């Protein structure tokens, strides 16, 4: 299997968080072959800063003894939006508008992109 998704996952497995940029400077996620909307132009890869803001969130409650977990939409500072989890928080501390920073957990094919509260985040 090859293509943008494979390239992105391989980079993530190597500890790099990449995004794509359209010719007009718009950040693109998820990884794509063509520019969204027009299909015109070439997408270039660049290293994401990894910072963003929680746009929306939901808590998933599981049967005990499993702990609940969150699913959050994160607006990256580059302008793209993605879905992930925010670690190290509980239902009372995770808020819409909270500043977060990305980290990669695991290596190789097991790598996943997660977020944690940014330093100084309330």
TrEMBL record:
InterPro entries: ChsH2_C, NA-bd_OB-fold, Thioester_dehydratase-like
Domain ChsH2 C-terminal OB-fold: 45-102
Record organism: Novosphingobium mathurense
Superkingdom of this protein's organism: Bacteria
Protein name in UniProt: ChsH2 C-terminal OB-fold domain-containing protein
């Amino acid at each position: 299997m090859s293509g943008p998704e494979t390239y992105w996952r391989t980079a993530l497995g190597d500890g790099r968080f990449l995004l794509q940029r359209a010719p007009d400077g718009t950040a693109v996620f998820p990884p794509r072959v063509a520019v969204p909307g027009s299909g015109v132009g070439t997408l270039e890869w660049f290293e994401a800063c990894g910072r963003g803001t929680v746009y929306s969130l939901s808590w998933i409650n599981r049967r005990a003894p499993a702990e609940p977990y969150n699913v959050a939409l994160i607006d990256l500072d580059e302008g793209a939006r993605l879905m992930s989890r925010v670690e190290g928080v509980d239902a009372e501390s995770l808020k819409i508008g909270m500043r977060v920073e990305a980290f990669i957990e695991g290596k190789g094919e097991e790598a996943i992109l997660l977020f944690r509260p940014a330093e100084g985040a309330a």
